[in-house]
C-alpha cells in the first residue's frame, strides 16, 4: 500500500452521536440547512444513525441571518461543549 499522508488519527472508535451547530450573526440559512438536513433529521428507519442535534447561539437574543430574518434557539454554548462534533456554518 502506498502511503502519501502520515497515519494520524484522533478517532477513539466512538461514533458521532451528539452534534451542535453554532448560529452566529450573519449566518447563511443554506449552510444552516445543510447541517440540519445532515444531522437533525431522524433517518433511523433507513438504517442510518440518529443524532442528538441542536442549534446553539451565544445568548438569548435573536440571531440575524444573511437573508434578513432572525433565528431564536433555546440552546447555548454549554450545549456545544458537550457535542462530539461542532459545526460553524
Describe this structure in words.
The protein is an alpha/beta fold. It is 19% helix and 21% strand. It is built from 2 helices and 5 strands. The longest helix has 12 residues. The chain is globular and about 35 Å long. The protein starts with 17 loop residues before the first strand and ends with a strand.
Q: Quick recap of the structure?
A:
The protein has two helices and five strands; from the N terminus they run βαβββαβ. It has helices at 29-40, 77-81; strands at residues 18-23, 52-57, 63-64, 70-71, 85-87.
Helix and strand composition category: alpha/beta
In the predicted model, the low-confidence regions spanning at least 5 consecutive residues are: none
Question: Which overall shape is indicated by the principal axes computed on the Cα atoms?
Answer: globular
User: SSE order in H/E notation?
Assistant: EHEEEHE
Distance between the termini: 36 Å
Strand count, sense and closure of the main sheet? 3 strands, parallel
Roughly what percent helix?
Answer: 10-25%
| Average pLDDT figure | 89
User: Count the helices. How many?
Assistant: 2
Number of strands: 5
Specify Rg, calculated over alpha carbons.
16 Å
As a percent range, the share of strand residues is: 15-25%
List descriptors.
89 residues; alpha/beta; 3-stranded parallel β-sheet; two-stranded antiparallel ribbon; 2 helices
Summarize the SSE layout with pairings.
Layout: E1 18-23, H1 29-40, E2 52-57, E3 63-64, E4 70-71, H2 77-81, E5 85-87
Parallel strand pairs: 1-2, 1-5
Antiparallel strand pairs: 3-4
Amino acid at each position: 500500500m502506498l502511503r502519501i499522508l502520515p497515519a494520524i488519527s484522533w478517532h477513539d472508535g466512538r461514533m458521532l452521536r451528539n452534534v451542535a451547530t453554532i448560529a452566529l450573526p450573519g449566518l447563511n440559512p443554506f449552510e444552516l440547512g445543510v447541517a440540519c438536513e445532515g444531522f437533525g433529521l431522524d433517518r433511523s428507519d433507513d438504517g442510518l444513525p440518529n443524532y442528538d442535534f441542536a442549534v446553539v447561539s451565544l445568548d438569548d437574543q435573536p440571531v440575524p441571518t444573511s437573508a434578513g430574518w432572525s433565528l431564536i434557539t433555546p440552546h447555548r454554548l454549554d450545549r456545544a461543549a458537550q457535542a462530539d462534533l461542532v459545526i460553524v456554518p
